[in-house]
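re: the backbone from monday

yeah here it is again, tokenized this time
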């Protein structure tokens, strides 16, 4: 399956930090910010999660839900949420099946080593479940504001 703007977002079912199973289709009628990030408790991922936390009310006021996805286990997500007061769900994708579905599981290079991992990416899914906007290879600084602005201008 290829991810295309204007097409239906691939549905999925993942365990959330809360212990509940969450399906993307559960949020039909709301906009969804679906963001994929590499790892809990790392500097870039913490900054991004805290930026979403700080704008959470603004997103909520625009009928928008935030869902974070990483390969980390449920217990680590729970610690991350508690430590930083995150008011949104983090989803467990340990086998990276959803990351692969959204084409964000990529070969990465760091300090000369190659490995597979999450390419930081964000998808805006509209109330009908279609992909309205995508960002790949996200740079954390200013990204949350950019996503919020997109929703204000296009999906409000």
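seq for it, each position gets an aa:
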């Amino acid at each position: 399956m290829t991810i295309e703007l204007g097409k239906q977002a691939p549905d999925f079912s993942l365990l959330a930090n809360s212990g509940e199973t969450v399906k993307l289709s559960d949020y039909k009628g709301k906009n969804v910010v679906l963001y994929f990030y590499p790892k809990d408790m790392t500097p870039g991922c913490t900054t991004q999660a805290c930026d979403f936390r700080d704008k959470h009310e603004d997103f909520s006021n625009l009928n928008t839900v935030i869902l974070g996805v990483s390969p980390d286990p449920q217990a680590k997500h729970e610690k991350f949420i508690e430590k930083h007061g995150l008011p949104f769900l983090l989803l467990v994708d340990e086998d990276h099946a959803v990351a692969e579905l959204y084409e964000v599981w990529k070969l990465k290079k760091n300090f000369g080593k190659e490995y597979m991992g999450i390419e930081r990416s964000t998808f805006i899914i509209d109330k009908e479940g279609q992909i309205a906007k995508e960002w790949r290879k996200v740079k954390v600084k200013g990204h949350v504001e950019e996503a919020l602005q997109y929703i204000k201008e296009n999906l409000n």
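The two ends are 28 Å apart (CA to CA). The CA atoms of residues 126 and 155 lie 7 Å apart.
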